Amino acid sequence: MVKAIRVLKWEDVEIGDPKCGEIRIRNKAIGLNFIDVYYRKGVLKAPTVPYTPGEEGVGVVIAVGPGVTDRKVGELVAYGGYPMGAYAEERILSADKVVPVPPSVDPVVAASVLFKGMTAQYLVRRCFKVQPGHTVLVHAAAGGTGSLLCQWANALGATVIGTVSTKEKAAQAKEDGCHHVILYKEEDFVARVNELTSGKGVEVVYDSVGKDTIQGSLACLKIRGYLVSYGLASGAPDPMPLSALGAKSLFLTMSTVFHYTATRDELVETAEDVFASLASGVLRVRVNHTYPLSQATQAHADLENRKTTGSVVLIPDGAFEQ
């Protein structure tokens, strides 16, 4: 028996031995992401109930199943994406769902950055290709993914505008590459973006907030601009007519990292880009909050109440004593 979180209850679970093509991992660190909250609240539907949440983690391979030749016992690996089940001391995964962690990357950093880093990677490199001279708007600029987006877009030569809720988060966003930071509780972000761009608008808005910002995000775009919705922190947006995009020939997409890492080659290429960007200094990761895995409920509450900045990581008891 090992311990795991099942719908945020700390329980004993049986996980068995790895089957053909599978490996068993002892987690060292587990990344907390807002998608975990979406599943818990029913915004997204879990495949089974009860279930163990979590999309992202780093652990040591402790057993390999038949047919696995490219992973070995004792190897440190990371994973980010389906299937869920990261909130556990140990878990079984298909060997093709993990990537090796470079020796230069700390396990806690890797667990905090892979899923969010792959999300940032596809957003700035493939969903909308950020180019030098572009102006981009990033909502929740001090959050786990938002901070990486700001850093990466800045490194690609864009002018970065970020929205945050507090002055403390504004200071972090500045450090992470934002040229302009908007305190959305104190000023209208649409009016401020209009002022900063001399009425032209931005090429792309990266919106992880949803209902509360979607209309304003559309208003911030220039002609033929792109609104990339990749999260629903404030809930699902109200329906809108297609004609809402027609006034400026706008593009709107709602995207997920799973569709950009669907093949083994895509997964490996995206993860390697994230780790390379860490090594080169393009990305700096703030693991500002760690919680014992058994306190996942408190970690969720703090994330939802905007008490966290940067990345949040859950640590299984004794993870670094093994």
UniProtKB/TrEMBL annotation:
Organism of this sequence: Escallonia herrerae
The protein's name: Probable quinone oxidoreductase
GO MF: mRNA 3'-UTR AU-rich region binding; NADPH binding; quinone reductase (NADPH) activity
Alphabetized PANTHER family for the sequence: QUINONE OXIDOREDUCTASE PIG3-RELATED, QUINONE OXIDOREDUCTASE-RELATED
Residue intervals of the Enoyl reductase (ER) domain: 3-314
GO cellular component, one term: cytosol
InterPro entries membership: ADH-like_C, ADH-like_N, ER, GroES-like_sf, NAD(P)-bd_dom_sf, QOR-like
Pfam families in UniProt: ADH_N, ADH_zinc_N
Superkingdom of origin: Eukaryota
UniProt keyword terms in alphabetical order: NADP, Oxidoreductase
Annotated signal sequence range: none
